[in-house]
Specification:
It is a single chain. The protein starts with 9 loop residues before the first strand and ends with a helix. It has 2 domains: 9-110, Formyl transferase, N-terminal domain (Rossmann fold, 3-Layer(aba) Sandwich); 116-203, Rossmann fold (3-Layer(aba) Sandwich), CATH 3.40.50. With 203 residues, the protein is of the alpha/beta class. The chain has a 7-stranded mixed sheet with strand order 3-2-1-4-5-6-7, with helices on one face. It is globular and about 50 Å long. The model has no long low-confidence stretch (mean pLDDT 93). The protein has helices at 21-31, 50-57, 73-86, 103-108, 132-140, 176-201, and strands at 10-15, 37-44, 62-64, 91-94, 113-117, 145-152, 162-169. It is built from 6 helices and 7 strands, in the order E-H-E-H-E-H-E-H-E-H-E-E-H.
């Protein structure tokens, strides 16, 4: 019999700035027992985001991370690390969170912060390469494939070790929007599978 029935579920923090589709998907996976985890905290720097409103509607603990220009990045970093520790978080998932994770938080959660990126890293990563910027660049380069990558978060954008990848075929006439929609369909299961693999491995 699996020890999953007796050990405490891993506590996840999901960091999101936008529509929160990954947050919803992770919440569903936890609720259905696909993930041996529970969402212990949602962090957003955008209180108007769908992710923030979903967290509030499901009564999930949620915290506003003030990343405005008049807030020092070191103060943001220290506050985020303290909040994650306070909520006894085991794993941090950045899913559409558009701010760099600082050194204090990275040190507090070594190899416990993962990101999902909408391209096949190491290509099409780095500063400014998010959302439609990624898909426009992939199409402009006339690539035949794109996909999604789950990787560890480090001090440099999108350069952490790759955990899992899946690909899609780019078909004639694809637009940045249609490519994004196609990739999102593989992003959701990829993130859940990769995370469950990590939870099992670290158990």
């Amino acid at each position: 019999m699996s020890t999953a029935l007796t050990r405490p579920a891993a506590r996840l923090a999901v960091l999101a700035s936008g529509r929160g589709s990954h947050l919803r998907n992770l919440y569903k996976a936890c609720s259905q027992g696909v993930l041996d985890a529970k969402i212990g905290l949602v962090v957003s720097n955008n209180v108007r985001s769908s992710a923030w409103h979903f967290a509030a509607s499901e009564d999930l603990p949620h915290w506003f991370c003030d990343t405005s220009n008049n807030t020092k990045s070191s103060a943001v970093d220290q506050a985020l690390a303290a909040c994650l520790i306070e909520h006894r978080i085991d794993w941090v998932i950045t899913a559409g969170y558009l701010k760099k994770i600082g050194p204090t938080t990275l040190d507090a959660f070594p190899n416990r912060i993962i990101n999902i990126h909408p391209a096949l890293l190491p290509n099409y990563g780095g500063a400014g390469m998010y959302g439609q910027n990624v898909h426009r660049a992939v199409l402009a380069a006339k690539e035949r494939q794109s996909g999604a990558t789950v990787h560890y978060v480090t001090a440099r954008y999108d350069e952490g070790a790759i955990i899992a990848q899946n690909h899609v075929t780019i078909t004639q006439g694809m637009t940045p929007d249609s490519l994004a929609d196609t990739i999102l369909k593989i992003e959701h299961p990829l993130l859940v599978q990769a995370l469950q693999g990590l939870l099992t491995h670290h158990d």
